[in-house]
Design brief:
By secondary structure, this protein is α+β, with helices and mostly antiparallel strands. It is 24% helix and 29% strand.
Length: 93
Amino acid sequence: MLDEVLFADDGLYDACELPAEVMPILRENFRRIQLPDYPMWASTDDSPIRWYSAPDAILRLDGIQNRAWLHARARTPAGLEAIRRLLPGRWVG
């Protein structure tokens, strides 16, 4: 269910390969959702899947290695831009 919300095609989603040095910023600014670690179906290299939230955002981190994929959804375009500024990386959107 969370994946459908996260990947909806409405301009409020983006993704980047998160550099390892930025991961502490993610943990400091977003609350980990109390779901168990999930394996990534496509690759064990991208495991575990962990979910994070903020009042106007939901994020999914695929793996804990350097350049793990971070998927982000915000409630507004300004909220998504705030995530991009807070977590520097090569955002695809």
